[in-house]
Design goal:
This protein is an alpha/beta fold. It has 6 helices and 11 strands.
Length: about 220
């Protein structure tokens, strides 16, 4: 049977996502938000989710819909403060003790995900040593620098936005759209890609930025 990882609907792309899942969501600045898939996940309604996302409050991302729907138990992110003068839904829930937040320096955030995909359970880094963000973590001096032990992050689901895919799940990104996509795709048990176009013919190997072996489902959404 020929491989074809394309699915026809967003609902089909979200099949088998259960309560308590850890969900990676790509996006940085204004690029790479898998908003069609995020909304489909919200409509699917799994509860007690842990979101791993660069920003918990970015206005271009629909992660706030998941949070507002009460589906999220915890957020792991490098940014939690919104741009608006008032409090976002996430910030209000955090203030009221109704949601957990693990704030991670952005470089450490990216490396923890990459390590998860590479099968590295933990690593030492000097970033954050001596700050509240690393309080209680194991420390060690390496090469004359004080370092803190950080654990890898792995997930149940990754929602990735790319520009182009083929039937085999190979992905190509457009500029900054790539951001956390490759790392998140490797670190999740189930990776679903939302793309502008999903072609029948194979993407030339030299153009592939995430191999299809790391992608389970592809949804073409147009622009």
């Amino acid at each position: 049977m020929a491989i074809d990882k394309r699915v026809a609907t967003a609902a089909a792309a979200m099949e088998d996502v259960g309560d308590g899942a850890t969900v990676f969501i790509t996006g940085f600045g204004g690029a790479g938000f898998a908003n069609v898939l995020i909304r489909a996940l919200c409509e699917c309604g799994p509860r007690d989710l842990t979101l791993v996302v660069n920003s918990a409050t970015h206005p271009a991302s629909l992660t706030h819909e998941l949070i507002a729907a009460g589906l999220v138990r915890k957020v792991i992110a490098s940014a939690g403060r919104g741009r608006d003068p008032g409090l976002s839904v996430f910030e209000t829930l955090l203030r009221d003790g109704k949601i957990e937040f693990e704030c991670v320096p952005q470089g450490t955030f990216a490396e923890r995900i990459r390590a998860g995909g590479a099968g590295i359970p933990a690593f030492f880094t000097p970033v954050g040593f001596g700050t509240d963000l690393t309080r209680g973590k194991e420390t060690r001096q390496l090469a004359g620098r004080d370092c803190v032990l950080e654990t890898a992050i792995t997930g149940d689901l990754a929602l990735v936005r790319a520009d182009l895919a083929d039937r085999y799940g190979n992905l190509v990104f457009k500029y900054a759209q790539m951001n956390f996509g490759p790392a998140m795709a490797t670190a999740a048990k189930l990776t679903v890609a939302e793309v502008r176009e999903a072609r029948d013919e194979a993407i030339p190997p030299e153009r592939v930025q995430v191999p299809g072996v790391f992608v389970d489902r592809v949804l073409a959404v147009g622009a």
